[in-house]
């Protein structure tokens, strides 16, 4: 009898797995808000710890996993929901580990559900090549970091990242490259970014949302942790990385103006924004770290919303080619309004959070080198240019014949975009009050 009851409960839970998962993610989102109500001190309990950045990223991870389920209510298979569950667990654990080796384990384990999402729910045969690129770049760059972490643990006698090691303050050049390399590939920094546009283009909607919204932030969080654990100070390698990141962001902005694939354009814009994050964290001063934290949080919601908009527009035009998607304003004015709002957020129009992050990093860059600050200004200008190009190319002009068979925005699509916008609005209000 008890066996029969347990089987019935299990079958009901499995049948309503999407609904159960959505409720769990919603409750976890509200609970994670409580983590944000603390000061800048570090809370530690056994192998877990919490600081202001990890708490923000845990909140971002849970909310975006909830938004992934809301955006794809037609995907209710058990494998799909379990993949999202495992991904959120791995991400939350990696953001809350104080043990170096466990952080590395969960840092790498988060790639497995992402790879399964790309391969299992991608659209084209090239998704296998995109998954291979992602694994080769990220895992290959992480292996030297693993050796360096073991050496640090053996030298200091502890695996705890909160305890400062007795290692020399200035590490050798090759060790600094190993230390930052794994996280710069994950961000990614320009010149090691080739896996990201390919993964975005071949990934399904949820894969793109997770990649841009959360997984890229793992790289920034890793740099933040390594600065604390190894007592890193700006060095020659760090200044070179800052220069490459800012110059690379400028070059990527030019590349965005030449893109015809809408997902590739949004993916390259993520590379440009992550150049600000890597620069701010490696400079490791108050202006730089504050800019990186603000940019990571704002970019997590805005880039995820842009990929949602790209998919919704694709579902109406049946193409990702920008010239064939023009004229959305005539047929779908609500969708065009959403494009306008999120393109303004992505271009850092006032009073958005992206603008605050760019202003803070400009101060940090001006203190070390005014030419790099000038390049940063050009990158900001081009960011506005390619976002305006994206909006006008898709929404203005006479509509294409490919758009004639579409349907208006559905209720769950509108809900997803509104929920992407709400955290940004609350954060903007909070920053204005401060």
Automatic annotation (TrEMBL):
<keyword id="KW-0812">Transmembrane</keyword>
<feature type="transmembrane region" description="Helical">
    <location>
        <begin position="236"/>
        <end position="257"/>
    </location>
</feature>
<feature type="transmembrane region" description="Helical">
    <location>
        <begin position="368"/>
        <end position="389"/>
    </location>
</feature>
<comment type="similarity">
    <text>Belongs to the complex I subunit 4 family.</text>
</comment>
<feature type="transmembrane region" description="Helical">
    <location>
        <begin position="171"/>
        <end position="196"/>
    </location>
</feature>
<feature type="transmembrane region" description="Helical">
    <location>
        <begin position="203"/>
        <end position="224"/>
    </location>
</feature>
<feature type="transmembrane region" description="Helical">
    <location>
        <begin position="52"/>
        <end position="70"/>
    </location>
</feature>
<dbReference type="GO" id="GO:0031966">
    <property type="term" value="C:mitochondrial membrane"/>
</dbReference>
<keyword id="KW-0679">Respiratory chain</keyword>
<keyword id="KW-1278">Translocase</keyword>
<dbReference type="GO" id="GO:0015990">
    <property type="term" value="P:electron transport coupled proton transport"/>
</dbReference>
<protein>
    <recommendedName>
        <fullName>NADH-ubiquinone oxidoreductase chain 4</fullName>
        <ecNumber>7.1.1.2</ecNumber>
    </recommendedName>
</protein>
<keyword id="KW-1133">Transmembrane helix</keyword>
<dbReference type="InterPro" id="IPR003918">
    <property type="entry name" value="NADH_UbQ_OxRdtase"/>
</dbReference>
<dbReference type="GO" id="GO:0003954">
    <property type="term" value="F:NADH dehydrogenase activity"/>
</dbReference>
<feature type="transmembrane region" description="Helical">
    <location>
        <begin position="77"/>
        <end position="95"/>
    </location>
</feature>
<feature type="domain" description="NADH:quinone oxidoreductase/Mrp antiporter transmembrane">
    <location>
        <begin position="99"/>
        <end position="378"/>
    </location>
</feature>
<keyword id="KW-0249">Electron transport</keyword>
<feature type="transmembrane region" description="Helical">
    <location>
        <begin position="133"/>
        <end position="151"/>
    </location>
</feature>
<comment type="function">
    <text>Core subunit of the mitochondrial membrane respiratory chain NADH dehydrogenase (Complex I) which catalyzes electron transfer from NADH through the respiratory chain, using ubiquinone as an electron acceptor. Essential for the catalytic activity and assembly of complex I.</text>
</comment>
<keyword id="KW-0830">Ubiquinone</keyword>
<dbReference type="GO" id="GO:0048039">
    <property type="term" value="F:ubiquinone binding"/>
</dbReference>
<keyword id="KW-0520">NAD</keyword>
<feature type="transmembrane region" description="Helical">
    <location>
        <begin position="324"/>
        <end position="348"/>
    </location>
</feature>
<feature type="transmembrane region" description="Helical">
    <location>
        <begin position="264"/>
        <end position="283"/>
    </location>
</feature>
<feature type="transmembrane region" description="Helical">
    <location>
        <begin position="7"/>
        <end position="32"/>
    </location>
</feature>
<keyword id="KW-0813">Transport</keyword>
<dbReference type="GO" id="GO:0042773">
    <property type="term" value="P:ATP synthesis coupled electron transport"/>
</dbReference>
<dbReference type="InterPro" id="IPR001750">
    <property type="entry name" value="ND/Mrp_TM"/>
</dbReference>
<feature type="transmembrane region" description="Helical">
    <location>
        <begin position="289"/>
        <end position="312"/>
    </location>
</feature>
<keyword id="KW-0472">Membrane</keyword>
<keyword id="KW-0496">Mitochondrion</keyword>
<feature type="transmembrane region" description="Helical">
    <location>
        <begin position="101"/>
        <end position="121"/>
    </location>
</feature>
<dbReference type="GO" id="GO:0008137">
    <property type="term" value="F:NADH dehydrogenase (ubiquinone) activity"/>
</dbReference>
<dbReference type="Pfam" id="PF00361">
    <property type="entry name" value="Proton_antipo_M"/>
</dbReference>
């Amino acid at each position: 009898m008890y066996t029969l009851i347990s089987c019935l409960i299990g079958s009901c839970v499995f049948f309503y797995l999407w609904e159960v998962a959505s409720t769990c993610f919603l409750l976890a989102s509200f609970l994670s808000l409580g983590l944000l109500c603390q000061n800048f001190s570090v809370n530690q309990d056994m192998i877990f710890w919490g600081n202001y950045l990890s708490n923000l990223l845990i909140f971002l991870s849970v909310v975006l996993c909830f938004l992934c389920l809301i955006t794809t209510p037609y995907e209710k298979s058990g494998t799909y929901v379990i993949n999202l569950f495992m991904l959120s667990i791995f991400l939350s654990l990696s953001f809350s580990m104080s043990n170096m080796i466990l952080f590395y384990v969960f840092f790498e384990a988060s790639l497995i559900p992402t790879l399964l999402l790309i391969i299992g729910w991608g659209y084209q045969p090239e998704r296998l090549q995109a998954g291979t690129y992602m694994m080769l770049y990220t895992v290959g760059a992480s292996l030297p970091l693993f050796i360096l972490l073991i050496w640090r643990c053996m030298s200091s006698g502890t695996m705890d990242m909160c305890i400062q090691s007795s290692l020399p303050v200035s590490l050798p050049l090759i060790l600094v490259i190993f230390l930052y390399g794994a996280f710069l590939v994950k961000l990614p920094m320009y010149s090691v970014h080739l896996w990201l546009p390919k993964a975005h283009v071949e990934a399904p909607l949820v894969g793109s949302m997770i990649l841009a919204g959360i997984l890229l932030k793992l790289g920034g969080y890793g740099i933040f942790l390594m600065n604390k654990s190894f007592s890193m100070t700006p060095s020659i390698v760090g200044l070179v990385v800052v220069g490459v990141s800012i110059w690379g962001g400028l070059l990527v902005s030019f590349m965005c103006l030449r893109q015809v694939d809408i997902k590739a354009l949004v993916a390259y814009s993520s590379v440009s924004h992550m150049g600000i994050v890597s620069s701010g964290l490696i400079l490791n001063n108050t202006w730089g770290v504050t800019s990186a934290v603000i940019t990571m949080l704002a970019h997590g919601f805005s880039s995820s919303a842009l990929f949602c908009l790209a998919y919704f527009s694709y579902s109406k035009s049946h193409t990702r080619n920008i010239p064939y998607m023009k004229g959305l304003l005539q047929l779908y004015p609500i969708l065009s309004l959403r494009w306008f709002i999120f393109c303004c957020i992505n271009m850092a129009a006032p009073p958005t959070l992206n603008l605050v992050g760019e202003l803070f990093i400009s101060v940090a860059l001006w203190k070390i080198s005014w030419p790099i600050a000038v390049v940063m200004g050009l990158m900001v200008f081009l960011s506005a240019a390619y976002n305006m190009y994206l909006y006008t190319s898709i929404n203005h002009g006479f509509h294409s014949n490919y758009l004639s068979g579409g349907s208006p925005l559905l209720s769950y699509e509108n809900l997803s975009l509104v929920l992407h916008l709400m955290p940004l609005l609350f954060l903007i209000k909070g920053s204005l009050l401060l």
